[in-house]
Specification:
The chain is α/β, with parallel strands linked by helices and 292 residues long. The chain is 59% helix and 10% strand. The strands form 2 sheets. The chain has a 5-stranded parallel beta sheet, with helices on both faces. Strands 6-7 form a two-stranded antiparallel ribbon. It is elongated.
């Protein structure tokens, strides 16, 4: 319901009680603030009871207030400008321990991701990657870091990896015009969703390519066009979104592929270790103890 939440509130407005109409007006006008309020705080702000706020959420079709709040937060993360994000962040964290607050939020995102990831889609994604003729990895803007991380390790495992590293449509189509149904694309997209990524996934699906979406929820733009969806929850941390959970999910994907490759991967790494030693790629730091 995330995308149409405000329109749903508007369409149901005439059916609400007097107290619920107060809540509806407040959410419509101040949704960037309302998204981070407890039911009690929202009730206090609009001068209705906490139970009225909870009933408002259930009237909209939610099981409870937390589910409504989550959708509201998803809405603002995909809509807010950078300046609005700073204002929301300031309001949320004023007087709090920033390190503790940020790490607690990251921990919760990891737990939510662990519960959200579909084992069926994860296992199917691993199988599809293993069988692909070419593995394309796509991520732009903030997701480019995640794409680069996955590409680095996949290139140590496979010899058919293509990192799509572009900033314009013309560059994009030059990179992917040879892609076909024997290939797979791992597309990474987090709020605010890049229009370039959406267009790329649409282009690939038109050509019958298998697409694995790594995104924050099943209603995200690329999720609706993909064969498999791996949910990695992200949350707003000042002007950026936390990428801790998506990174952890990529670690899981790399680990699963490593197990599948088995002895072949061991041989690859034995050869790499010889090259790294021969050309002194890594510093051979030896810790010495001072006994004197």
């Amino acid at each position: 319901m995330t995308v149409s939440l405000l329109s749903v509130i508007d369409s149901k407005f005439d059916t609400f009680s007097k107290g619920q109409k107060k809540i509806a007006k407040f959410v419509a006008e101040h949704y960037e603030t309302a998204a981070f309020m407890t039911a009690a705080k929202m009730g206090e702000t609009v001068k209705v009871s906490e139970s009225t706020v909870v009933r408002f959420a259930t009237e909209l079709g939610y099981k409870g207030y937390p589910e409504f709040q989550k959708d509201l937060q998803d809405l603002i993360r995909s809509k807010l400008t950078g300046v609005q994000r700073i204002d929301v962040f300031d309001a949320r964290t004023k007087g709090e321990n920033i390190v503790e607050n940020t790490m607690k939020n990251d921990s919760q995102l990891l737990m939510n991701t662990m519960q959200a990831v579909s084992k069926e889609h994860f296992d199917a994604s691993v199988k599809t990657i293993m069988n692909a003729k070419k593995i394309y990895i796509l991520g732009v803007r903030s997701a480019a870091f995640l794409a680069g991380f996955l590409s680095y390790y996949f290139k140590l495992i496979f010899d058919n990896v293509v990192l799509i590293n572009v900033s314009s449509d013309s560059e994009l189509y030059e990179e992917i015009f040879r892609i076909n149904k024997d290939d797979v694309c791992i597309a990474i997209s987090m709020p605010r969703y890049s229009a370039l990524t959406i267009r790329a996934v649409r282009f690939m699906k038109d050509r019958g390519v298998n697409v694995i979406a790594i995104t924050d929820n099943v209603n995200a733009p690329i999720a609706r066009m993909s064969d498999y969806v791996l949910e990695a929850k992200s949350g707003m941390a000042s002007i950026v979104d936390s990428l801790v959970a998506p990174l952890s999910l990529l670690n899981s994907l790399i680990a699963a592929i490593t197990l599948e490759k088995g002895a072949e991967l061991r041989e690859n790494y034995e050869a790499l270790e010889e090259i790294w030693d021969q050309y002194e790629v890594y510093d051979k730091f030896e810790e010495t103890s001072n006994n004197g």
